[in-house]
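Predict the 3D structure for this chain.
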Amino acid sequence: MIICPNCKEKLQKINKSYQCINKHSFDIAKEGYVNLLLNKRHSGDNKLMIRARKEFLEKGYFKVLANQILKHIIDTNLNNPSILDIGCADGYYTNIINKKIPNILGIDISKEAIKLAAKAYRDIEFFVASSKELPVSNSSTNIILSVFSPVFVDEIIRVLKDDGILIKVTPNSNHLIELKEIVYENVYYTKEKLIEDDRLLLVSSNDLTYSLNIPNSDLRNLITMTPYYYKTNPKDLKVLEMIETLDITFDFCISIYKLI
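Done. Predicted structure below.
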């Protein structure tokens, strides 16, 4: 399933590395992941954002979303489907799915994120790679999962099997709205567009909305794990320090596409 980024031949695990027939070799890091990026420059989320996300997710605030994703996968009734989690970050959703369906790979362009994921979940294979060029063979995957990560349609279509599906999770307009109202003078509402491509059929699109009370200790992690932290004036962020707790709306869209 995993292919060489150089020649696109199948990679096989041999001792402490992955190798192809053309003798391209990629070492397994001590944490357990493999870096398949040919351009080794720093990419993706930084260490601060990754740590904040991991600490926040470990509190269970997104468990409702994770369980809903798992339900959609189970409802496909596929027998031991092969699953690819693209933009898997620290592996939170990857791990929850793996507990029920242990046939999943995680990839992310951020080496720091993959390093954290591999250290935490030793029974899952994680790879540093780009969603623009998935290190996966043609027509090899039953299910691709994308949670808040970019989707490159041509690559999705290339790697999906004939019965394959894409599960894409995006934020809805009211996602974290209370946080936005505090740190922004002019609140903007975002809602990502559905994928429009003749090769993919939209099977379903469902909203998932719930609200939780978040203590101050977790509010900082919540905003640090989002792009808002880097787009907001530090003076505006200091307002959060005076808030003991805040009811936060989590608003998602879970869209499922099928290969036509």
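The mean pLDDT is 94.
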